[in-house]
Each structure stands twice: as C-alpha cells, then as structure tokens.
Amino acid sequence: MPQGDWQYDVLRELGVPEQGLTGPTLPRMADPAAQTRLDLPLPPRPTSPGTAAQAPAGPHDHATSWYAPAEPAVHPLTDWHAGHTPVQDSPPGPAEQPPPAEQTVVDPTERAPAAQFYPQAGQAPAAPGPPHPGAQAGPGPLPAPVQPPAPGGEPAARTPYGDPLMRRVGRSVKRAVGTSGAADVRELGEVAERLRRAVPSCRRIAVTSIRGGAGKSTVTALVASVLAGHRDDRVLGLDADSGLGSLPLRLGVAAERSVHDLAGAQPRAWEEAAGYLARSPNGPWVLAAGAGGRLGDELDLGTFQTAAGLLSRYASIAMIDCAAGVNARLQRGILADAHAQILVTPGTVDGALSARGALDWFGRNGLGPLLGRTVVVLVTHTPHIDADLDGARRLLAEGGLPVQHLPYDRHLAVGAAIEEGRTAGTTRTAAARIAVEAFSRSLETA
C-alpha cells in the first residue's frame, strides 16, 4: 500500500465522499457566509506509479473541515498560487520558498460566519451576533483613557498622611468615645502648661546641625508650630540661612521681603514690621533670609542681629533656623546670644559621632554654658531603621544631655509645606517633647 493510503481508507470508513479528498486546492464558494475559517485543502491522494490523473475537485463538504494539516502539500508541477507556472521543475531553493498559506486557529466553540472577518469590498463589517451557546464570554470593551485634569482645573494631589489609614481611624475612634489613655491626657496637660509659661523677654532658640540635610528646618518648623499652637502671643520663625534655606517652604509661606529689607527699613511699630513678615497657616510669623525664594546677599551677623532685635520686642519666642555648620562667624554669634539650642543630627551612629564632636567643640570655644541648655534630636529619614539608634542615643546621653527622637514620617519626607493635620501622631508627640525641653531650658537664663 502506498504511503499515506491508510488516511484515505480511514476517511472513507467515516463516510467522507471521495470527491472531497482528491483535489490539491478547493475553490471558495460564491457565498462567503457559508465559508468557514477552516477551509484548508487536504493533501492529494497518493496514486500508484504511472497514474497522473486525479479526480476533479467537487463541491466542498463541511464534514472534512475538521482535518486541517499544518502545511498543505504542493505538487511539484502545481504552484501554490492559482494561475502561476513554476519556472523550473526542481523544488525551489530556500530563498525562493513561497510564503505559507494563511492559517488561522479558531476555537471550535466559537465559529462565526466568514462574513464577519472578511467583508466584501465596500461593505462594513457585520455587527457581532449573539454568542454561541458553548462559547465563553470575552472581555468587555476597553475603558476610556483617563484624561489628566486641565490646567487651572482640579487642584494637585495633596501630600500623604504621616500615619496609615487604620491608625488614623483608630485614633479618631478613641477620641470619639473618650477612651484615650490617662497617661496621654496627663502628658498633654503638662505640655500645654509648660509651654504657656510667661517669659521675661523674647526667648531665642537656635536650631543647628553639623551638616546639611539633617532635618534642621523641619525641626524648626515643627517646634515653632507647636509653640504657636499653645501660646496666645507671637512666635517667630527666623531664617538665618542665606543659601536658600527651606524654613519658609516648610511653614507654607512665600515671603516677598527678607531680613535685609527689615534691617534697612528700621520699623518702629508692629504694624510696620508685619509688612516684612509672612504668617504661616500653622501660626508662626516667618522672616525669610532671601526675598521671593531667590538667593540673596550673604547674611552677616550685624544685619541679622539688627533684624532680630527689632522683632524681639513684639514676640515671645524666636526660633532661629541656622545654616549648616557651627564654625562660621554668623552661627557662632547666634549661639552666643541664644537662650537654648536644638542640635539636629541624623539618627545614625555616624550622625551621633558628628554631634558628639560638635558638643566637644562648643566646650573648647567659649560656648560651654550653652551645653546645659542644649537638646539633641536624632532624625530618622528612612522608613526602615538600619542603624543602632539605641547606641547613638546612649553615646549622646553620656554627658547628661536630653536626647529626643523624631521618627520617620511619610508626610515630612515629601519635603513640601507641613500640614499639621497630616503629620503622624508619633511626629506630633516628638515635636511636643522637643518643644517642652528646649523652651524649659531657655527659661533657665535671663
């Protein structure tokens, strides 16, 4: 039996008509709707040697459409495309192989008339009909793309909250049902009482750091906001960093006047001086080192002392955000006149070592009395504490100095204006403790 003859015997056993098996190609029907997507030709039936004639192709029978070979056979003397005569009898080389016939695999449970896929010329594709009972539901239409808000339309997204949602909800429930811990209530009462104490004169609290990026302006803004929230008099935030300090940004103001303008104007009343300041939504009044967020002239000690002296008669507390470092003449002059100091350093062992070196420097350069009125603040800048925070705290507390920790806060990490209601509860607690420690020590000197 010639090779491949058994396939045709099996098809005859299944009742497939003989004329449906013989032709190398099958003509398409005139009616496209009766054509299925599996109309692929069957290979020609092998014949015995010496027999070249084949039975003519008859009408196509749909019973044969299930049999679709991967590659339709092509007779050596018959081209794959109708009406084309090959140039040579030998099989074409690799570079001359004709493209394979188009084959499309269709899910047998989802057969549709060919008119849906191959509309006639000038005819729009037919709308899809109801799905086949056995077909699975396909995906729905794609959603419309989200358009960005038009300029000047919706406001930009606000900065994130410092606390996760569940923690904020739990805190709100505790306040609503009055189940806050007695210790928390007592501590809040003590904080308010200590921060409302009267002052003999304007208390100058300098906030310093050994290097930039430690969180000095953030601590200044937080403490100034806490003090302004507990007192009925004025609290100032003085920017002493002429290199584009970020205190006005953190307090949410855009100051158009600078310390140079105030010192040159010499105002004689609060109404005149207030024109050179900006009021923060959190309460403090802010004096910027550079006007309009621009890099201003180098700030010298005399100019700053003049401006601070003019404002001290109208306020109870002045939080001074110093430039990075403590060795410059401006920083040394501010520290010499300060009633208290907040030394800010990263919450790492390296930060603790740097702060310890600065404290030793204070003692050797005539600032030893200020050490007793200094509060050290360790700031965590990442959500994962990889450093030995307890070791850093012990290293700095050996001299008897109070050491406070400001934990990581998602809202503060954005670097934008601080919204008090969005900071974490641990941030507000830490800021209140820092404010109490620094303000209490500022009252220990005249």
Automatic annotation (TrEMBL):
Gene3D superfamilies: P-loop containing nucleotide triphosphate hydrolases (3.40.50.300). InterPro entries: CobQ/CobB/MinD/ParA_Nub-bd_dom, P-loop_NTPase, ParA/MinD_ATPase. Residues 89-101, 140-152 have a biased composition (Pro residues). GO terms for molecular function: ATP binding; ATP hydrolysis activity. Residues 205-247 form the CobQ/CobB/MinD/ParA nucleotide binding domain. Pfam families: CbiA. Residues 17-107, 121-166 are annotated as: Disordered. Transmembrane segments: none annotated. GO terms for cellular component: cytoplasmic side of plasma membrane; cytosol. One of its GO terms (biological process) is negative regulation of cell division. This is CobQ/CobB/MinD/ParA nucleotide binding domain-containing protein. It comes from Actinomadura craniellae.
